[in-house]
Amino acid sequence: MKEFHLEEGRPGSSALRQAIEGGWIVEKEPSDDPLVRTLRQDLDQGESEAIALAVEEEAGLILLDEREGRRRARNVGLEMTGALGILAQADRRGNLDSISSALDRIESEAGFWIGPALREQILGGSE
User: Fold this and answer.
1) Which distant-in-sequence residues (6+ apart) come within 8 Å of 10 by Cβ?
2) Distances (CA, A) of 98 to 13, 31, 33, 92, 95
3) What are the pLDDT digits (tens) for 1-53?
């Protein structure tokens, strides 16, 4: 499985390390190899295994951002959100000082592209 790589010094790496050490993040491999192989026809290894594991674990939610991964997850009946959905929810709960600044940072620091229409939709929903 080894898709996950923690790079020290990257934004959020310290918090991520604490989550791993605290048991909030646990490495687990899916057992449904045929499903993983089927998903691998269209997706990378990490997305394929994440979707297969979410199906096996009957997960209530999976975090995916890539369009094809989201389509395949929807096809197997999974509910999903993405990084922007997490930020929008954090903003609604009052956990962010500025959703606009958070969007700027995810673009500049993580190389995440947000289209103008989606940005406007997120900012419009936070007012």
Assistant:
1) none
2) 21, 41, 42, 11, 9
3) 455 667 777 777 888 889 989 999 888 999 999 999 999 999 999 999 999 99
At 80 the three-state DSSP class reads strand
Q: Are 25 and 19 in contact (CB under 8 A)?
A: yes
Output 79-83 pairs: Cβ under 8 A, ≥24 positions apart.
Answer: 83/112
Quick one: average pLDDT of 100-127?
A: 88
Mean pLDDT rounded to a whole number for the chain: 89
Alpha helices in the chain (DSSP H): 13-21, 33-39, 45-56, 67-75, 83-92, 99-110, 116-125
Distance CA 110, CA 86 (A): 15
For 2-11, 50-59, 77-86, 88-97, which range has the lowest pLDDT when averaged over its residues?
A: 2-11
* pLDDT given at position 5: 66
> Which residues, 6+ apart, have CB-to-CB distance to 15 below 8 Å?
none
Task: Classify residue 73 by burial, with Cβ atoms within 10 Å: 0-12, 13-18, 19+.
Answer: buried
